Amino acid sequence: MNFAYTLYFHIPISFLNKQIHFVFTEQVAYRREADDPAANKDDKKAPLTIFKLAWDNKSFPANILPDQIRNLREATRQRLEFVQKRASLKLKLRDRIRIIFPEILGIFSDILGASA
Q1: Mean pLDDT of 49-60
Q2: Which one of 4, 34, 44, 78 is least enclosed by Cβ atoms within 10 Å?
Q3: Which of 86, 85, 27, 33 is nearest to 58 (CA)?
Q4: Where are the domains of the chain?
Q5: Residues 73-97, mean pLDDT to the nearest whole number
Protein backbone atom coordinates (compact mmCIF):
# COMPACT_ATOMS: atom_id res chain seq x y z
CA MET A 1 0.00 0.00 0.00
CA ASN A 2 2.81 2.44 0.80
CA PHE A 3 4.28 1.87 -2.64
CA ALA A 4 0.87 2.41 -4.26
CA TYR A 5 0.33 5.67 -2.37
CA THR A 6 3.80 6.88 -3.32
CA LEU A 7 3.10 6.16 -6.97
CA TYR A 8 -0.34 7.73 -6.83
CA PHE A 9 0.66 10.96 -5.11
CA HIS A 10 4.20 11.56 -6.39
CA ILE A 11 4.27 10.42 -10.04
CA PRO A 12 2.89 12.85 -12.65
CA ILE A 13 -0.67 12.08 -13.75
CA SER A 14 0.25 11.93 -17.44
CA PHE A 15 2.86 9.22 -16.79
CA LEU A 16 0.85 6.98 -14.51
CA ASN A 17 -2.70 7.67 -15.66
CA LYS A 18 -3.78 6.81 -12.07
CA GLN A 19 -4.22 3.08 -12.79
CA ILE A 20 -2.81 1.07 -9.93
CA HIS A 21 -3.77 -2.58 -9.48
CA PHE A 22 -2.96 -5.15 -6.81
CA VAL A 23 -2.09 -8.80 -7.26
CA PHE A 24 -2.25 -10.97 -4.17
CA THR A 25 0.80 -13.01 -3.25
CA GLU A 26 -1.32 -16.16 -3.07
CA GLN A 27 -2.35 -15.61 -6.69
CA VAL A 28 1.27 -15.25 -7.77
CA ALA A 29 2.29 -18.45 -5.96
CA TYR A 30 -0.65 -20.41 -7.38
CA ARG A 31 -0.10 -19.14 -10.93
CA ARG A 32 3.66 -19.79 -10.77
CA GLU A 33 3.03 -23.34 -9.60
CA ALA A 34 0.37 -23.89 -12.26
CA ASP A 35 2.69 -22.63 -15.03
CA ASP A 36 5.68 -24.73 -13.98
CA PRO A 37 5.17 -27.05 -10.97
CA ALA A 38 8.80 -28.19 -10.88
CA ALA A 39 10.31 -24.69 -11.01
CA ASN A 40 11.77 -23.01 -7.97
CA LYS A 41 10.79 -19.53 -6.92
CA ASP A 42 13.14 -16.77 -8.06
CA ASP A 43 13.17 -13.03 -8.63
CA LYS A 44 13.09 -13.35 -12.41
CA LYS A 45 9.89 -15.37 -12.62
CA ALA A 46 7.78 -13.36 -10.18
CA PRO A 47 7.49 -10.19 -12.34
CA LEU A 48 6.52 -12.28 -15.35
CA THR A 49 3.88 -14.10 -13.32
CA ILE A 50 2.52 -10.78 -12.02
CA PHE A 51 2.40 -9.44 -15.57
CA LYS A 52 0.47 -12.52 -16.74
CA LEU A 53 -2.06 -12.10 -13.92
CA ALA A 54 -2.55 -8.43 -14.77
CA TRP A 55 -2.83 -9.23 -18.48
CA ASP A 56 -5.52 -11.84 -17.73
CA ASN A 57 -7.48 -9.27 -15.65
CA LYS A 58 -6.81 -11.19 -12.43
CA SER A 59 -5.64 -8.07 -10.63
CA PHE A 60 -7.75 -5.76 -8.50
CA PRO A 61 -7.88 -1.97 -8.84
CA ALA A 62 -6.37 -0.20 -5.86
CA ASN A 63 -8.70 1.76 -3.64
CA ILE A 64 -6.67 4.91 -3.04
CA LEU A 65 -8.19 6.75 -0.09
CA PRO A 66 -7.67 10.36 0.93
CA ASP A 67 -4.98 10.92 3.57
CA GLN A 68 -7.50 11.73 6.32
CA ILE A 69 -9.37 8.43 5.92
CA ARG A 70 -6.14 6.46 5.60
CA ASN A 71 -4.82 8.05 8.80
CA LEU A 72 -8.08 7.32 10.63
CA ARG A 73 -7.90 3.67 9.58
CA GLU A 74 -4.32 3.41 10.79
CA ALA A 75 -5.22 5.05 14.12
CA THR A 76 -8.13 2.63 14.53
CA ARG A 77 -5.85 -0.36 13.82
CA GLN A 78 -3.30 0.87 16.32
CA ARG A 79 -5.98 1.42 18.98
CA LEU A 80 -7.26 -2.13 18.48
CA GLU A 81 -3.72 -3.49 18.85
CA PHE A 82 -3.24 -1.53 22.09
CA VAL A 83 -6.57 -2.74 23.49
CA GLN A 84 -5.65 -6.36 22.69
CA LYS A 85 -2.19 -5.96 24.19
CA ARG A 86 -3.64 -4.38 27.35
CA ALA A 87 -6.11 -7.28 27.72
CA SER A 88 -3.28 -9.77 27.33
CA LEU A 89 -1.16 -7.98 29.94
CA LYS A 90 -4.11 -7.88 32.36
CA LEU A 91 -4.58 -11.64 32.02
CA LYS A 92 -0.89 -12.24 32.70
CA LEU A 93 -0.99 -9.93 35.72
CA ARG A 94 -4.09 -11.68 37.13
CA ASP A 95 -2.41 -15.05 36.75
CA ARG A 96 0.73 -13.88 38.54
CA ILE A 97 -1.27 -12.27 41.36
CA ARG A 98 -3.24 -15.51 41.81
CA ILE A 99 0.00 -17.48 42.07
CA ILE A 100 1.72 -15.10 44.50
CA PHE A 101 -1.35 -14.15 46.59
CA PRO A 102 -3.90 -16.99 46.31
CA GLU A 103 -5.87 -15.67 49.34
CA ILE A 104 -6.69 -12.42 47.49
CA LEU A 105 -9.42 -14.18 45.49
CA GLY A 106 -11.56 -14.56 48.62
CA ILE A 107 -11.22 -10.89 49.55
CA PHE A 108 -11.74 -9.00 46.27
CA SER A 109 -14.06 -9.81 43.40
CA ASP A 110 -11.87 -7.89 40.94
CA ILE A 111 -8.21 -8.30 41.77
CA LEU A 112 -7.25 -5.54 39.33
CA GLY A 113 -9.77 -3.05 40.75
CA ALA A 114 -8.80 0.16 42.53
CA SER A 115 -9.54 -1.16 46.03
CA ALA A 116 -7.44 -4.30 45.52
Answers
A1: 80
A2: 44
A3: 27
A4: 1-64, 66-116
A5: 94
